[in-house]
Design brief:
The chain is an alpha+beta fold and 98 residues long. The chain is built from 4 helices and 4 strands, in the order E-H-H-E-E-H-H-E. The longest helix is centred in the N-terminal third of the chain and has 16 residues.
């Protein structure tokens, strides 16, 4: 199953992220190496949100990631939500429909 972790970032995210970025990226790359994260990154112009695409059987894994993310813990993320994404088109679709 695919899940989106959607972050709403604080207004001074770009100015504050440097001190937490290495720890955040280490956590994200670890999740990617374990096969949980497929893609992740911030939206641009403006950098007000970030999207992390997970491929996992449980929303709990995504929620645990968010609760432990240095960006969340240190207030760079003002709000986050986990949404199941019913992917139907593409080679990696969880439930392909033609």
């Amino acid at each position: 199953m695919h899940y989106l972790l959607i972050y709403e970032l604080c207004s001074d995210y770009l100015e504050r992220r440097a001190q937490f970025r290495d720890a955040h990226l280490a956590l994200a790359w670890h999740a990617a190496e374990c096969g949980d994260i497929v893609l992740a990154g911030a939206l641009d112009a403006p950098a007000d949100r970030a999207m992390l695409l997970f491929d996992t059987d449980s929303a709990e894994i995504v929620e645990k990631f968010a609760r432990n993310d240095p960006y969340v813990v240190n207030g760079l993320v003002e709000r986050w939500e986990v949404r199941k994404w019913n992917t139907v088109v593409g080679e990696s679709a969880a439930t392909p429909v033609r």
